[in-house]
């Protein structure tokens, strides 16, 4: 590092690049270990049926409880996992953990109400892993029906190889899972192609939803996506609902599900189970 100051050639090593590379390197090494040591967790954010106000399921969101850094956001470690290939074992872990949790909650609550959990699939994971076989393995190991899982994909999964992606989606539908297009509206939207895919739900990105009452353009985008979904026979979930006013507006526009801090933040598994039990009790009263 001293030499870095002396010659231009070594300057590279004192640059931000190196910092970033080292940071990434240690994150990657740590992440590999985290998977082995069970430092990853899933938190669960409620999805609310806007018409009835009832709980309609949860989205599983990965968290890394790092021994030194504390809770690391998936926005920081999912890209590292994608670049290193760790997304394959990580993605399998998420599928298994979510499936096992569904089975546990259904057993503990002793109810015949189905519990549904959405799991995020990365585009890189879809390219690198045999995701249908990973899903099949996870649901069989947990003893749940595929219908309990919703798999969230992003448009980026379809850019390079739409035909290949369709084959994968068809295989996932054959397992009886539900498919959702996540962050809809932020990416490359080939509408002609969307119609050919077996997608059940469009998830409207938070960047359009949160300020839709103040921002006319965003309100127009949200309402256009809702019409499109309705025309294509798809359900809708709006994410990033932070106020009752936005919740009411979306209900009026016919959006199926709502997700956001207004209802609940992502909860630990225990807190999510409490949320579920409380809702179930009020539903039967
Ligand atoms: P996403 O799938 O679009 O998930 C929604 C994100 O919005 C979550 O962030 C959630 O905490 C946040 N959110 C929900 N409601 C509100 C709200 O009202 N206000 C605000 N400000 N934020 C809200 P999170 O948990 O940080 O996850 C970020 C992204 O990381 C996810 O975006 C998803 O793309 C990715 N991710 C999370 N878990 C996994 C995973 O297990 N596998 C993969 N491949 N990606 C994951
Ligand atoms: Mg998602
Ligand atoms: Mg989303
Ligand atoms: Mg999003």
Automatic annotation (TrEMBL):
Residues annotated as domain EAL: 24-280
Domain of life of the native organism: Bacteria
Protein name: Bifunctional diguanylate cyclase/phosphodiesterase
Species the sequence originates in: Sphingorhabdus buctiana
């Amino acid at each position: 590092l001293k030499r870095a100051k002396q010659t231009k050639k070594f300057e590279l090593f004192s640059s931000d690049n190196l910092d970033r590379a080292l940071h990434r390197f240690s994150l990657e090494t740590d992440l590999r270990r985290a998977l082995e040591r069970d430092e990853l967790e899933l938190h669960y954010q409620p999805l609310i049926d806007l018409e009835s106000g009832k709980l309609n399921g949860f989205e599983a969101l990965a968290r890394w409880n790092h021994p030194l850094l504390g809770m690391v956001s998936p926005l920081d470690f999912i890209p590292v996992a994608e670049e290193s290939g760790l997304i394959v074992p990580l993605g399998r872990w998420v599928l298994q953990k979510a499936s096992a949790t569904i089975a546990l909650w259904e057993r503990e609550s002793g109810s015949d109400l189905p519990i549904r959990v959405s799991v995020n699939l990365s585009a890189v994971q879809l390219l690198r892993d045999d995701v249908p076989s990973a899903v099949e393995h996870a649901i069989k190991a947990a003893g749940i029906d595929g219908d309990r899982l919703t798999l969230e994909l992003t448009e980026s999964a379809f850019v390079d190889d739409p035909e290949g992606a369709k084959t994968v989606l068809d295989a996932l539908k054959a397992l009886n899972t539900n498919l959702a297009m996540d962050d809809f509206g932020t990416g490359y939207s080939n509408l002609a192609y969307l119609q050919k895919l077996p997608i059940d739900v469009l998830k409207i990105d938070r960047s359009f939803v949160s300020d839709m009452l103040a921002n006319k353009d965003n309100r127009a985008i949200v309402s256009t996506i809702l019409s499109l979904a309705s025309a294509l026979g798809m359900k809708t979930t709006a994410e990033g609902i932070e106020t009752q006013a936005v919740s009411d507006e979306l209900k009026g526009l016919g959006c199926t599900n709502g997700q956001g801090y207004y209802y609940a933040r992502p909860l630990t598994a225990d807190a999510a189970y409490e949320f579920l039990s409380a809702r179930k009790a009020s539903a039967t009263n």
